[in-house]
Amino acid sequence: MWSFFGGRKAEPTAEVSSIFIYPIKSCRGISVSKAPIASTGFRWDRQWVIINSKGRAYTQRVEPKLALIEIQLPNEAFTDDWEPTNTSYLVLRAPGMNELKVSMKSSGKVIDGVTVWEWSGSALDEGAEASEWFSNYIGKPSRLVRFIEGSETRAVDPEYARGYRTMFSDGFPFMLLSQGSLNALNELFKEPFPVNRFRPNILVDGCLPYAEDLWTEIKINNLTFYGVKLCARCKVPTINQENGIAGSEPTEMLMKVRSDKVLRPNGKHRGKVYFGQNLVCKESLTRGKSKVLKVGDPVYVLKKVSSVADAAV
To answer: pLDDT at position 313, please?
Structure first.
């Protein structure tokens, strides 16, 4: 067993139980057995976003029916160093809609004025057919656009992780959640909530509930991840990912057990709830060796804070 501590064998704290990629922001995710890591997070993760007529991103917060859009990528897309060909497609399906195929090869025109939260820049328009498909499905003028990796940069908040980048995720390249935390929350309900309500990239199992709150440096498959900020949850966990209907839970319960007032009683309270840990990957900053995460990889905790009150929020 690999050692971190001067020859003493280190025992893993958990292992990776699931990996999820969300190619189009706020649409349904894909569960994969392995995923290569690029400079902005998992490859293909949030590389596309749907925008309105003013260039602003749609999310499930205002268009919950995005949860029903299923996405299929070629299986080989998650192989390290794979590049799309002329016959490589995103295949999209949604209730009441014909199947849509979107080429994975960049070929569209560049459009300006695309905005995702604080970021504004240019993106690659995926064309009239995709625009018509999304406009018909959402019921409003819409376009599907792709992040331009070669010329655009969207920096992670330097207050938490200086020098790191992401594409169209809310703010950080990775979000990790433990099965223990999900189980602990679900014990408070008669009907359990599936993990898709919380949209993690990495689900780990084998650790205590909410252990991930404390992790500031972990090692997975020789890759170093830094836990940089507890994940503040928005409206999305209240949206049933099977029918697109929003309710009040689990957010009402999270306010009782995972709010800033509960977790940090002596800190500043902004009415937020936290569930999961945002990560960056050290090796994403450099080119070179293969960087792949796999289901079953052990998780080693190298550094952690002593209590959740000391975690960054």
So the answer is: 94
Is residue 160 over pLDDT 90? Answer: yes
Instruction: Domain ranges for the chain, please list them.
Output: 3-310
Return the beta strands (E) in 13-133 as ranges. Answer: 14-21, 30-32, 34-38, 41-42, 48-51, 70-72, 89-93, 100-103, 110-116, 119-125
Beta-carbon contacts of residue 35 (< 8 Å; ≥ 6 apart): 19, 21, 42, 43, 78, 292, 293
Rounded to the nearest 5 percent, the helix, strand and coil shares of the chain are: 20, 35, 45
CA distance 213 to 235: 21
Instruction: Give 75-78 contacts, CB < 8 A, sequence gap 24+.
Output: 77/43, 77/44, 77/104, 78/21, 78/32, 78/33, 78/34, 78/35, 78/36, 78/43, 78/44
pLDDT tens by residue, 203-233: 999 999 999 999 999 999 999 999 999 999 9
Amino acid at 123: A
pLDDT in tens, 36-64: 999 999 999 999 999 999 999 999 999 99
Nearest to 55 by CA among 109, 139, 123: 123
Per-residue pLDDT tens for 252-280?
A: 999 999 999 999 998 888 999 999 999 99
User: What pLDDT digit, counting tens, does each position of 2-25 carry?
Assistant: 344 444 567 999 999 999 999 999
HSE-CB of 262 using CA atoms within 13 angstroms: 11
Other Cβ atoms less than 10 A from the Cβ of 134: the count is: 28
CATH code that applies to domain 3-310: 2.40.33.20
- Cα separation, 20 vs 9, in Å, equals 30
Q: Is the pTM of the predicted complex or chain greater than 0.85?
A: yes
